């Protein structure tokens, strides 16, 4: 019988085999609960690496025999993953099972070995391998026109309200509000990642979905000196740019005669990535009954798209990180430590897009043609033309913008923590931790537009693979610079600054030789968080147009007058040659768009007198918020081997939290001074700002209960119940009201008063959550488990439009409210095993799988009228970010010097946003699956070389739009295809070495 030292006691491990009857029973349990096979390295750990430096520590149910800060015997430290000798996939899987089996609560983890072995180069991509965890594939869910090469937006069991911890302490990225942007953090610095799905009272509050804890290494993790490094080069098959990566770790510990034991660690990483994304899109479909579109059909109403777009985005990112740590144990009763981590994430993307520019939904068939529809009256193909925005221009054609857009963003996050741990006596441990987090993020988004009218435009929405295709006639029209003019520019700026100071004190008391009580923990924590953010609106301004003509023969600023800042761009091998589009086209040059300061001077010189000028930050762009929290918790750990006839253990806890919020901002009145309304109205509605402030506070009591029943040595049953909260995002709390209007056709009377605002009086979303899990460990690398969960959520936050009165005028203002309840229920199943019963080299094969089902009820959201952009309430939409089904499948092989993994990840359709930035419609991400792989060869016990591969199946990211609400109860519930995106297959050649 093998043994593993867990929490200071010798715990027998599982036998290598299990009776076939038990295997059949466990399989039957999984199938009966309608779970699919699952479990990607679900490991359980609640402590940071090394000694007890984490505020996120949890403890095994094993009784603690004595009080000591020695990591080998400290209960809170025994889940230190580094203490398990993990040298490969098989050993990692075995250690995962040991940690999961001996956990105090339901926690899934991935160790540093797993992160390095999986075909994933970011923390975000790694997290999606855990059951119940999904990620987005867009830079922002509110802007689904721009996919993300490495994924973003982690959700747990369908909820994006996830608390992010770094070494057990609250941490955040300035560009992501309350949470860390996991893609910003170098994976190479991590020793492990933990996912808590039903947290206990010890954990910092903040995630009704769950809590993710990232752990970095500590010098006392290893018995002595450790040196490790890696280097690699990656390339995408579409972008065809090679980019480097490298990391270096040095850790050591020294015993001295007079100063005790000292440890030091430094870990640095650097990586770059370049990728390309191609996309073809269809503009929103609109129900129409006008004669031109009905011609040749038998329908009284048809659904017609506005046109089509195509775009290529070239993405680059650079990620630099450094982690350092010091540990000092001057005596056997005292330990002092310091941890530091700093990450710098620089991202930029350059996009060339041919974007449909007819906003009036009056596309009609070209002369002498009719549109083709399917049997539901939905447009299939046809020759398009439109008179929109043509003014005095002759000929046919549909207006298109060719825009070059450049966005750059740099996010820097620094986290520095210092703490201690002191044995007061044989029964009590006192520990403290003090933390400073500072994060900054700066973003510039700049677009320059040229415009043309594409003649002979044919759109087929059912082309190859069901994707649209576009042709023009004559084909050479797009390559003639004389057919374009400089049209407009648009810029946007964000500068975010966030800082948090936090401190905590914890006291643990052990009950020695007690048959029921094991130990209890108490603690207090206080934090002071500030947010100082600047975010401008998108500042669009004309250069020349049919209504803004300049002093040239045509009235336009033609690109042929200023050719040095325009360039002919070919969409080379667009969509791998599977989609037909017009090419080449003229675009604003890269050099112009990437030089923001000079672009303003150039565009002013060729445009109208009131041409676009760079945006100026004003009072309404400022968002100054503060938040203070005070928390106290207590947890009692208990257990008994005989009282119930079977061994059981658990913990009961309560966390009390008070939150105080302050916010400062402005109300901006409508600005009618340049309209044709009466002078009295101009004087009243002059765009003036009025300062406002708000403050609120609330208290929460968050109990938790975890129970574990050991039905046999191999089979155990868990029950977990808790309450959780998620505070509103700072963007939702912003005390800013922007009031606006809609004028009549004569520009002299307001026909609609509207506005948009934040809500500093929002309450947090609160959830009562229940979990139960049955886990069967049938061999050292064999695990089958099933988990059922239920969440009852109240104070759900969603946008609503309500009448509000300002200066005697009623405005329909849209802002977030706590407006209802939601229920989430579901199940997970997990399985992993190496097939040791097979002969010879075949025993190197293994499999992992997990499946998650999540269903929701409640959460009524709003939709938007595509004609008026007016918010229409009452359209039933699910919770944002929730996929009903997701799963992982992985085939493993490890034998001799070879190890390999082939991993498939899939999630079903989910709602991205209730109103996206382009269409103003509810937008969905369709079913998506991706295949990744890795293969490594061990040159010797210290060095290995391998190849990591991503997106081997050339997956398509498909976006849907709808339902479309027209008001007065008229709703088109059809989900139309909006976008089809593909990105690179990525390959990275990696060399790793480590020496102890």
Automatic annotation (TrEMBL):
<dbReference type="Pfam" id="PF07715">
    <property type="entry name" value="Plug"/>
</dbReference>
<keyword id="KW-0472">Membrane</keyword>
<feature type="region of interest" description="Disordered">
    <location>
        <begin position="42"/>
        <end position="81"/>
    </location>
</feature>
<feature type="domain" description="TonB-dependent receptor plug">
    <location>
        <begin position="100"/>
        <end position="211"/>
    </location>
</feature>
<feature type="signal peptide">
    <location>
        <begin position="1"/>
        <end position="42"/>
    </location>
</feature>
<dbReference type="Pfam" id="PF00593">
    <property type="entry name" value="TonB_dep_Rec_b-barrel"/>
</dbReference>
<keyword id="KW-0998">Cell outer membrane</keyword>
<keyword id="KW-0798">TonB box</keyword>
<keyword id="KW-0675">Receptor</keyword>
<keyword id="KW-0813">Transport</keyword>
<dbReference type="InterPro" id="IPR010104">
    <property type="entry name" value="TonB_rcpt_bac"/>
</dbReference>
<keyword id="KW-0732">Signal</keyword>
<dbReference type="InterPro" id="IPR012910">
    <property type="entry name" value="Plug_dom"/>
</dbReference>
<dbReference type="InterPro" id="IPR036942">
    <property type="entry name" value="Beta-barrel_TonB_sf"/>
</dbReference>
<keyword id="KW-0812">Transmembrane</keyword>
<dbReference type="InterPro" id="IPR037066">
    <property type="entry name" value="Plug_dom_sf"/>
</dbReference>
<keyword id="KW-1134">Transmembrane beta strand</keyword>
<dbReference type="InterPro" id="IPR039426">
    <property type="entry name" value="TonB-dep_rcpt-like"/>
</dbReference>
<dbReference type="InterPro" id="IPR000531">
    <property type="entry name" value="Beta-barrel_TonB"/>
</dbReference>
<protein>
    <submittedName>
        <fullName>TonB-dependent receptor</fullName>
    </submittedName>
</protein>
<feature type="domain" description="TonB-dependent receptor-like beta-barrel">
    <location>
        <begin position="441"/>
        <end position="952"/>
    </location>
</feature>
<feature type="compositionally biased region" description="Low complexity">
    <location>
        <begin position="45"/>
        <end position="62"/>
    </location>
</feature>
<comment type="similarity">
    <text>Belongs to the TonB-dependent receptor family.</text>
</comment>
């Amino acid at each position: 019988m093998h043994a593993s030292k867990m929490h200071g006691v010798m715990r027998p491990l599982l036998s290598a085999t299990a009776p076939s009857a038990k295997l059949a029973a466990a399989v039957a349990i999984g199938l009966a609960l309608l779970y699919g096979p699952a479990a990607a390295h679900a490991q359980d750990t609640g402590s940071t690496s090394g000694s007890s430096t984490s505020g996120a520590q949890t403890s095994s149910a094993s009784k603690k025999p004595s009080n000591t800060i020695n990591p080998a015997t400290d209960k809170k430290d025994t889940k230190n993953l580094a203490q398990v000798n993990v040298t490969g996939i098989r050993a990692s899987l075995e250690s995962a099972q040991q940690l999961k089996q001996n956990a105090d609560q339901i926690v899934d983890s991935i160790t540093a070995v797993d992160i390095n072995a999986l075909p994933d180069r970011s923390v975000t991509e790694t997290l999606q391998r855990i059951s119940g965890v999904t990620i987005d594939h867009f830079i922002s869910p509110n802007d689904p026109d721009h996919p993300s090469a490495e994924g973003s937006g982690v959700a747990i069991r369908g909820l994006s309200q996830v608390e992010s911890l770094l070494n057990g302490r609250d941490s955040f990225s300035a560009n992501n509000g309350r949470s860390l942007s996991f893609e910003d953090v170098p994976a190479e610095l991590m020793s492990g990642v933990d996912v808590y799905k039903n947290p206990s009272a010890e954990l910092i509050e903040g995630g009704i979905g769950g809590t993710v804890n990232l752990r970095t290494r500590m010098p006392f993790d290893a018995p002595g000196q450790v040196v490790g490094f890696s280097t690699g080069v990656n390339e995408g098959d579409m972008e065809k740019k090679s980019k480097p990566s490298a990391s270096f770790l040095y850790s050591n510990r020294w015993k001295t005669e007079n100063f005790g034991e000292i440890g030091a660690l430094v870990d640095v990483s650097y990586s770059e990535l370049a990728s390309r994304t191609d996309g073809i899109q269809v503009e929103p479909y609109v129900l129409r009954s006008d004669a031109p579109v009905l011609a040749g059909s038998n329908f009284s109403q048809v659904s017609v798209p506005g046109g089509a777009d195509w775009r290529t985005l070239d993405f680059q990112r650079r990620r630099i990180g450094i982690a350092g740590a010091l540990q000092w144990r001057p005596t056997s009763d005292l330990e002092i430590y310091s941890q530091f981590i700093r990450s710098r994430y620089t991202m930029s993307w350059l996009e060339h897009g041919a974007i449909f520019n007819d906003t009036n939904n009056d596309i009609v068939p070209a002369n002498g043609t009719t549109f083709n529809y399917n049997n539901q009256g939905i447009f299939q193909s046809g020759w398009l033309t439109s008179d929109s925005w043509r003014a005095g221009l002759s000929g046919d054609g549909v207006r298109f913008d060719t825009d070059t857009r450049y966005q750059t963003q740099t996010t820097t996050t620094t986290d520095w923590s210092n703490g201690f741990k002191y044995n007061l006596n044989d029964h009590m441990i006192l520990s403290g931790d003090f933390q400073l987090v500072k994060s900054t993020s700066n973003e510039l988004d700049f677009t320059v537009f040229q415009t043309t009218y594409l003649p002979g435009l044919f759109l087929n929405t059912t082309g190859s693979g069901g994707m649209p295709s576009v042709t023009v006639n004559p084909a050479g029209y797009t390559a003639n610079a004389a057919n374009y003019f400089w049209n407009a520019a648009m810029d946007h700026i964000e500068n975010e600054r966030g800082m948090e100071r936090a401190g905590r004190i914890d006291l643990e008391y052990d009950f020695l030789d007690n048959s029921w009580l094991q130990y209890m923990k108490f603690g207090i924590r206080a934090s002071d968080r500030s947010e100082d953010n600047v975010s401008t609106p998108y500042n669009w301004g004309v250069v020349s147009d049919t209504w803004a003509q300049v002093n040239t023969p045509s009235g336009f600023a033609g690109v042929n007058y200023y050719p040095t800042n325009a360039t002919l761009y070919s969409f080379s091998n667009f969509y791998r040659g599977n989609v037909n589009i017009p090419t080449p086209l003229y675009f604003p040059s890269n050099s112009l768009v990437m030089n923001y300061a000079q672009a303003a001077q150039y565009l002013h010189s060729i445009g109208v007198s009131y041409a676009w000028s760079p945006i100026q930050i004003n009072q309404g762009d400022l968002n100054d918020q503060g938040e203070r929290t005070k928390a106290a918790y207590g947890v009692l750990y208990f257990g008994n081997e005989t009282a119930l006839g079977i061994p059981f253990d658990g913990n009961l806890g309560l966390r009390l939290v008070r939150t105080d919020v302050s916010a400062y901002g402005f109300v901006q009145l409508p600005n009618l001074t340049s309209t044709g309304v009466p002078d009295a109205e101009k004087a009243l509605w002059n765009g003036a700002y009025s300062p406002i402030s708000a403050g609120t506070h609330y208290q929460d009591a968050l109990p938790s209960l975890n129970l574990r029943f050991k039905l046999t040595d191999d089979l155990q049953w868990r029950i977990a119940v808790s309450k959780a909260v998620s505070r509103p995002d700072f963007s939702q709390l912003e005390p800013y009201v922007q009031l606006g209007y809609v004028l009549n056709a004569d520009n002299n009377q307001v026909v609609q008063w509207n506005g948009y605002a934040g809500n500093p009086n929002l309450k947090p979303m609160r959830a009562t959550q229940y979990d139960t899990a049955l886990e069967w460990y049938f061999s050292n690398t064999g695990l089958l488990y099933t988990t059922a969960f239920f969440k009852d959520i109240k104070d759900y936050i969603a946008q609503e439009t309500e009448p509000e009165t300002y200066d005697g005028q009623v405005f329909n203002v849209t802002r977030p409210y706590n407006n209802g309840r939601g229920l989430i229920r579901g199940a997970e199943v997990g399985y992993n095993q190496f097939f040791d019963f097979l002969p010879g080299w075949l025993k190197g094969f293994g499999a992992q799988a997990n499946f998650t089902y999540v269903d929701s009820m409640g959460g009524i959201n709003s939709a938007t009228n595509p004609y008026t952009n007016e918010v229409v309430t009452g359209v039933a939409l699910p919770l944002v970010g929730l996929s009903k089904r997701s799963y992982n499948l992985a085939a493993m092989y490890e034998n001799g010097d070879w190890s390999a993994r082939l991993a498939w990840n899939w999630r079903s359709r989910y709602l991205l946003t209730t109103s996206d930035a382009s269409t103003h419609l509810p937008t969905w991400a369709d079913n998506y699956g991706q295949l990744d792989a890795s293969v490594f060869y061990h040159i010797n016990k210290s060095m290995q070389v391998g190849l990591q591969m991503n997106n081997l199946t050339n997956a398509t990211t498909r976006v849907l739009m709808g339902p479309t609400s027209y008001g007065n109860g008229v709703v088109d519930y059809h989900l139309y295809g909006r976008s089809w995106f593909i990105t690179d297959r990525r390959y990275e050649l990696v060399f790793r070495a480590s020496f102890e």
